Amino acid sequence: MVTADNEPNMSVQTRGILSKVRQMIPPMLDKFHKGQLGRVAVIGGSQDYTGAPYFSAMASARLGCDMSHVICTPEAAAVIKTYSPNLMVHPLMRQTPADDETSKPDADKVSASIIEMLPRLHVLVVGPGLGRDPLMHDTVSRVIRAAKERKMPVVMDADALQIIQKDPGLVKGYSEVVLTPNVVEFKRLWDSLGLKDPGAAKETDKVEALAKALDGVTIIQKGQKDFISNGTVTLVNDLEGGKKRSGGQGDTLTGSVATFLAWRKAYLDGIWDRGDELAEDELLGLAAFGGSAITRESSRLAFLKQGRSLQASDLTDEVHGALMGLFGEVDGDAGPKL
């Protein structure tokens, strides 16, 4: 165990998983070109919610994704563009008009412009700042179906999880999906599928049961520990996080997982000399674990500095430090700091 105040505290099991995750992180090589290390798009952001997609997209960018996009409504786009010039913001989503139902945009037409972008992307994040507008939900449902046809990884959180409650078939059996529910969202998904409490057995029983009910979808059950399971393989992340539970920390998780999923593609494409090869069927779980680890370590580092005043933006500032603290420099012979 590592016990120094400025270093992460973890179990031997977590240390071993992180050593595998490190193998997925691409080195910074001169031969790489723009986009090879990740093209991620966050679909979310509405009139009332602009922070969540920003935090998700910025976590992805700060971790090392090459190109970070936000696909949102025009009202949200105008605001998000003021947050950072580093993000590519696309005002393609639409909300249901409040005053005239006859002028409601068509979900097929709205989704078509987003679906056209998919060949230029590696990973989608759906949910941050999405809200509960029915047109927004209908639009992302169509985009997710198109992503499935391309076998594109999709990370879903927040209000996007409500779509699954109503239509589990949208993701059921699609092994490229990662869900990141908190305690309340997990219970809603559990109840919507009519699952029964397995009783007091082992702590990962519920996440495994939910993942099995969705036929192999990967779930990150957030809590004091993060449980990550596809129903067959389960990983437990016991890294210490910060003690402040401010809103928006889950957006760092979605963006971080998305970047690791993009790196998974780069790993499978063999764009660098990988040395000891990881099994392809374990990479998605390792990507989910990596995103979870970065988030918990970012939270811990931010809490050490900010204490009870910690906000979601403080995690964004710590993402790179968390990467270095957990994995060290991957470009040379320095080796991991595990």
UniProtKB/TrEMBL annotation:
It is found in: Cytoplasm. (6S)-NADPHX binds at residues 129, 182-188, 251. Keywords: ATP-binding, Cytoplasm, Lyase, NAD, NADP, Nucleotide-binding, Phosphoprotein. One of its GO terms (molecular function) is ATP-dependent NAD(P)H-hydrate dehydratase activity. Belongs to the NnrD/CARKD family. HAMAP family: NADHX_dehydratase. This is ATP-dependent (S)-NAD(P)H-hydrate dehydratase.
